[in-house]
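user: can you give me the structure for this one chain? tokens are fine.
assistant: on it. calling the predictor now.
[tool input]
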Amino acid sequence: MLDQEMREPLFDYLDENFGKIRILEEKVIQGSRADVLGVLDGYFTGFEIKSDRDSYERLKTQVKDYDRFCDFCYIVAGASHRKHVAEHVPEYWGILVVTEDGVEMERGADDNPHAELEWQITLMWKRELHQLLEMNNCPKYADKSRKFICGKLLEKVDHGLLKKQMTDLIFERDYTVFDEQPTIAEKKERQKKAVKIGKARSRKGKAADRARAHTTHYIGPGRKRRK
């Protein structure tokens, strides 16, 4: 099975077996891109998909990156990987196998000993970080960077409470806030137009200045001067 063919049965399986879950696809985590990041009540679970056509070439690096961000990790394998996939992931990783008949739990996941809240908090939008500050009665730090705000939250808020608040906010996350915002290409096009308009106005202004400089002003009958 191909990657895209595996996703729909995987999502159905997660909805049926993982309770309240919000699924984020293709989420950048350090040097990797998580195929599926599951946000649950108070923790994060990662799912790396290896279709029947995929190799294990990048898996070692992917495992390290998933381990930083996810409290539980699963590899989701096509049927052709069933015999050997366990050799390529740590023992605390779970294994799900997707076949034409559905999804099978080959091995459940244990707590990931390497997950760090310092990495997980970087998944939050800046507006969400400010919400976390407000929820925990912290100063606003309006002019401070994301890194500074993350550091203050980790310093001042109990980590168990903070993670629960983080996952709650991601459950409520509304991606439609970006629907009416211009894309990077649109922003660049607008900037080009603004520059062209600015240059045109500048040329027009200079031409007007030259015209005024050669205008004859009459001061009473029979008298004139150049300005």
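assistant: here you go. The beta strands are 22-29, 32-40, 43-50, 72-78, 94-99, 102-107, 216-218, 224-226. DSSP finds seven helices and eight strands in the chain.
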